[in-house]
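Quick one:
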Amino acid sequence: MNPLFQLSTRRYQKEIILVKQALADLEKECDETNGYTIDVPFEKFGWTFFNIQISEKMAEKIEKSGMMKGALGFKIGEQMTNFIGHYLETKGSNVRIKKIDY
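Output:
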């Protein structure tokens, strides 16, 4: 199953550039191509929401590489959510992240 996360922001045009660059960097670190997809955004109450889906292969590489070491959470889905959120934050993004399915 591919991990699916919902991101939300009030500054979509700025944040989407940062998110795409961060995920491209993560692909390079995992030595993976086509490691993620970004769905069409939608707006609600002044916020823009969009989903990102991490490929199974890239998620597996993240889990096995030790990148998630120190990520908080009792279950692997929580740890992956916290890892992705923190990774995006270290790349300058200020989006909110929520796990949809893992």
